[in-house]
Design a protein that fits this description.
- The chain has 126 residues and is mostly beta strands.
- Helix content is 0%, strand content 52%.
- It has no helices and eleven strands.
- Strands 2, 4, 5, 6, 9, 10 and 11 form a seven-stranded mixed sheet that branches. A four-stranded antiparallel sheet has the order 1-3-8-7, with no helix packed on it.
- The chain is globular and about 40 Å long.
- The relative contact order is 0.32.
Amino acid sequence: QVQLVESGGGVVQAGGSLRLSCAASGRTFSRYAMGWLRQAPGKERGFVAAISWPGRNTYFADSVKGRLAISRDNNKNTLYLQMNSLKPEDTAVYYCAAVRGDSDLVYSDPSTYNYWGQGTQVTVSS
């Protein structure tokens, strides 16, 4: 079992930045591939970014490439999402998620993940 708790959400103006964190507890964090996903009102939960368990591989949705960065600190059991040049369309609840990773893979399908945090709201005003 892995417990995930997100933080760092808030209200920011378009063009601004936020840094989300996801603190993990329970089983060995370093053996889990991680992802950030988001859900806007009236929309399905969608993929944002992913990172492999060693942290060597990352993958981003086309809509956020060049603006967001994902990283992890396995010594601190923490996942990060640095969000720059934010747009109103980035407004959503952001979730971190985990799946046991036995190789240096990343996962973009939300159904792949079997542990989820409670989410943190990000609101970007125009």
